[in-house]
Amino acid sequence: MTPTDARCSLYPAFAALGTCRRCGRFACAQCFRPPTGLCAECEVREGGAEEPPPWEKRGEMGVAQGYLQTVRAGAVEPARFWSSFPGEGSMVDALLFGWVTTAISAIPTALLASLNLGQSVAILKSLPNLPPAAQRVLDFMDQSPLLFGGLLAAYMVVSYPVGLFLGAGVMHLLLRLWGAGGRGFQATVRVQAYAHFPQLMGWIPLIGGVASIWQVVLFGMGASKVHRASPGRVVGAILTPILLVALCGCGLAMLLPVMLRGALGR
Fold first, then answer.
1. What pLDDT score does 23 carry?
2. pTM of the model
3. Which domain holds residue 8?
4. Contact assessment for residue 194 and residue 90, using Cβ atoms and an 8 Å cutoff
5. Are 177 and 227 in contact (CB under 8 A)?
6. Cβ distance 223 to 174 under 8 Å?
């Protein structure tokens, strides 16, 4: 018997409909499965069922609640989040989630950039033979740092869809080359967008670097599950561009002394 005042353990804003027979937690109408007597998470563990992220239930639970619960699930219990993440679903929902994340993170990112603009502009202005156009841009940045920050934030928000699909396109190609992209481009887009939320902390000095690494880890977890590929193949796809850049850098470092000797010899 479920107490009348019991609240869902996952979504406390909702009243509990039942108690999961496996874990004993209270579950609301969104989470409880009367035929099995299980909550959504335990149903995933026992039967492998897929469950849309809370963001895709925002019509029922509200935009703010859907977003916050999705971020919480991905941040606190990433293994569970990806274990129930559906490979098939709306790219529009995924795009909107990533877009909201970008819009939220763009504000402190742009503000921090505008506050630290002075020293960078002064260094650039000291360079000799600056073109007039570059000088005008630097003058604008120096005189209107907050306006420049606002334009930067707007650019981040407007350009996000292009960056999402281009980035997902490159990653999907690499996944296919490694035999790890079997469920299609749409699945890769969804994983990339839902793994974007660590960028909420991307503007914080030092922590931003950790957030970027965590975002890559989340993408790897999601891609492995959604495409039903081995972690090794997914890691190989992720590391390929890094290795290519490193090899190009080593090649350039080896050629540079030869080029310098040739130039000096002339």
1. 83
2. 0.73
3. 1-86
4. no
5. no
6. no
